[in-house]
Design goal:
Layout (H helix, E strand, L loop, with lengths): L4 E7 L6 H9 L6 E8 L5 H11 L3 E6 L4 H9 L6 E4 L5 E2 L3 H11 L5 E9 L6 H10 L5 H6 L13 E3 H6 L10 H11 L4 E12 L5 H4 L5 H14 L8 E4 L3 H12 L4 E5 L9 E2 L2 E4 L11 E5 L3 H13 L8 E4 L1
Parallel strand pairs: 1-2, 1-4, 2-3, 6-8, 9-10, 9-13, 10-12, 13-14
Antiparallel strand pairs: 4-7, 5-8, 6-7, 11-12
């Protein structure tokens, strides 16, 4: 009988960290899983470590392939998966012993969910700076499908190495795809577009390692510009579709950059909304800057709260709700 869970473990030159990752998977209290480890052209000791593990544990299969990138590695694993759930794991991270048990239990009891994530804790803690702590707090605040949907265009609301998804639903949306932006974010947005619901276990179940060689630090698919292209693509294709252009709340750097990308992808920016009297009645990228009091004229457009400070985003969203606008249906926060 196939295992309940298929663990997708792409590996590229991870020998310094792989033993801790392997030990954490061996220590799982839920043992009904297979590991699909894909060695993506490693030049260090990773292939040997994986092969030794596979000899010791019949649940582990190793595929060795030329370096092709994380999407090809993930797809090589996914298309071989036999479990009804897919669990992601990165070779440099550490899973808590109850990770699979908790995520399995959540989805078994919630047939309405297509998948879930879990809480994370960055390590080593000495390397966690202010921005990292804020992001950790933010992503650990994503618990319900409503949390995920409200925050979907700020950042990927679930940490990729905590993904735990129904295998069949991932296949229905086409699996992992390389579009020049983050593959995990792209998958989450396609799942959401298909009306799939996502949540997270309200526990820290993954120790998320910080180091300079992480793909998210080095690869061009994870730059702020790549994230922005991804957000704008799906926003124009979904929530803003059929609306009379976008109304961008915030005429600062984030709002301007977002508007430029909207226009680059063929979308229309109707107006900017700002409180700064020096900006009001000016034009930015061809669109007028208006005071919030003039927003009623643009109710047929779709609004985005495009400011950097989380508190300012909340304030804008609160003002829109008080004015009778509905979050997600009429506006979202972006970053």
């Amino acid at each position: 009988m196939p295992a309940a869970i298929s663990v997708l473990l792409p590996v590229r030159d991870a020998a310094p960290y792989l033993p801790e990752c392997i030990a954490s998977l061996r220590a799982q209290t839920f043992e009904d899983f297979e590991v699909l480890a894909v060695d993506d052209g490693s030049t260090d000791d990773s292939p040997g470590l994986l092969s030794a593990w596979a000899r010791e544990d019949s649940r582990v299969s190793v595929v060795h392939q030329p370096p092709g990138g994380i999407v090809l590695a993930l797809e090589a694993g996914r298309t071989s998966a036999r479990g009804r759930y897919l669990a992601r794991m990165d070779a440099d991270d550490i899973a808590e012993p109850t990770r699979f048990a908790e995520q399995f239990m959540l989805l078994e009891g919630r047939p309405d969910l297509a998948g879930c994530g879990a809480g994370v804790r960055y390590f080593p803690r000495a390397e966690v700076r202010g921005g990292g702590r804020r992001y950790e707090d933010w992503i650990n605040g994503m618990r319900t499908p409503e949390d995920v949907e409200r925050n979907l265009f700020i950042e990927c609301p679930l940490a990729h190495p905590t993904f735990f998804l129904r295998t069949a639903i991932v296949a229905e949306v086409g699996g992992y795809v390389d579009r020049g932006w983050p593959e995990d974010y792209d998958l989450v947005l396609r799942l959401w577009r298909s009306s799939a619901r996502l949540a997270a276990v309200d526990q820290v179940l993954l120790q998320w390692r910080i180091h300079r060689d992480r793909a998210s630090v080095r690869h061009e698919s994870y730059t702020p510009e790549a994230f922005r292209r991804c957000k704008v693509h799906y926003l124009l294709e979904t929530l803003a579709r059929g609306r009379n252009g976008l109304v961008v709340w915030g005429a600062g750097p984030i709002g301007k950059a977002f508007a430029r990308e909207v226009q680059a992808q063929g979308g229309s920016v109707r107006a900017f909304v700002d409180l700064d009297p020096r900006k009001i009645d000016q034009r930015i990228h061809g669109a007028p800057v208006i005071h919030p009091s003039g927003i009623d004229e643009y109710r047929d457009g779709f609004s985005v709260a495009a400011v950097g400070q989380e508190g300012a985003r909340h304030q804008i969203c609160s003002e829109l709700e008080l004015a009778g606008w509905e979050e997600v249906a009429d506006f979202v926060a972006v970053a």
